[in-house]
Amino acid sequence: MRVPQVDLRSGTAPDAAPPPRHGPVLDVQHLSKTFPGTRALDDVSLEIAPGEVHALMGQNGSGKSTLIKLLAGYHSADPGAHAEMDGVPFEVGRSVPDGLRFVHQDLGLILELSAQDNLALHGGFARGRGGRVLWRQQEAETRRVLAAFDVDLDIHRPLAAATPVQRTVVAIAAALQGWDGGGVLVLDEPTAVLPHEEVERLFEVVAEVRRRGTSVLYVSHRMDEIFSLADRVTVLRGGRRVGTYDVGSLDSRSLASRMVGDDIDPDFRATVVEQVDQPVTIEARGIHGKWLRGVDLEARAGEILGIAGLAGAGALELPYVLAGKAGELARGEIRLPTVSPDWYDVQRAADLDIPIVPADRQTEAVVAEFTVGENISLSALRRLGSRGRLSAKDEATLVRSWSRRLGVVSTGPSAPISTLSGGNQQKVILARCLAVSPRVLVLCEPTAGVDIGTRVSIYQIIADLAADGLTVVVASSDEGDLLALCTRILVLRGGVVAEELEAEGLTKNVLIRAIEGAEQ
Ligand SMILES: Nc1ncnc2c1ncn2[C@@H]1O[C@H](COP(=O)(O)OP(=O)(O)OP(=O)(O)O)[C@@H](O)[C@H]1O
Question: Which of 34, 65, 223 to mutate to test the pocket of ligand 1 (most atoms within 8 A of CB)?
Answer without folding.
Answer: 65
